[in-house]
Design a protein that fits this description.
single chain; 199 residues; alpha/beta; Nucleotidyltransferase, domain 5; five-stranded mixed β-sheet; 6 helices; 15% strand; cytoplasm; EC 3.1.26.4; manganese; RNase_HII; RNA binding
Length: 199
């Protein structure tokens, strides 16, 4: 069962990102501050939910959160600073956009670069432990999915509406057949459609 806060005595923002493992598009991050007594049936790690469940939870989170924000770091920035630093930057940008200044941050994962003077804790698999991180995971995921679905309209060959830029066999094959789009991450290994074992 997910719990509300890591530090119940402070105004706490949960942070998570989406899109680190993609071949194309931005990495997104969300920061969410929930009310102390917040509870939402079905709220969980976004990866454990269906597309429909995430889309149903998103407007409730956005309506009932004390504050929330989503930010992006695009493919060009990812190529310049690497995906790990881009993930940190996306979270920093999301935190900076919050209309309520948090006193404490909980970050999904095991690494983070300190933001301003706000203390933080890194929580491995935190999106399955804390409601504010789970809420952030849903906002980061749904906003990025929406972005990639819009890009799909101009680049239908890669099927981003379905794969969202992740390295599916179909996506890799499309790159090999027609080349890179302007939105692909050029520092990522895109060319190998599958691994072949030598027996």
């Amino acid at each position: 069962m997910l719990i509300n806060c890591y530090n119940i005595d402070l105004i706490e923002a949960g942070c998570d990102e989406a899109g680190r493992g993609c071949l194309a598009g931005p990495v997104s991050a969300a920061a969410v501050i929930l009310p102390k007594d917040f509870y939402l049936e079905g709220l969980n790690d976004s990866k454990k939910l269906t597309h429909q469940q995430r889309d149903e939870l998103r407007p409730i989170i956005e309506r009932e959160a004390l504050a929330w924000a989503v930010a992006f770091v695009d493919h060009k920035e990812i190529d310049q600073i690497n995906i790990l630093n881009a993930s940190f930057l996306a979270m920093h940008r999301a935190i900076a956009k919050l209309m309520v200044v948090p006193q404490h941050l909980v970050i999904d994962g095991n690494r983070f670069k300190k933001y301003a003077e706000i203390p933080h804790c890194c929580i491995v698999k935190g999106d399955g432990k804390y409601l504010n991180i789970a809420a952030a995971s849903i906002l980061a995921k749904t906003h990025r999915d929406e972005y990639m679905a819009n890009l799909h309209n101009d680049f239908p060959h890669y099927n981003w509406k379905q794969n969202k830029g992740y390295p599916t066999i179909q996506h890799r094959n499309a790159v090999m057949e027609i080349g890179l789009s302007p939105f692909h991450r050029k520092t990522f290994n895109i060319s190998d459609p599958q691994l072949v074992l030598s027996l």
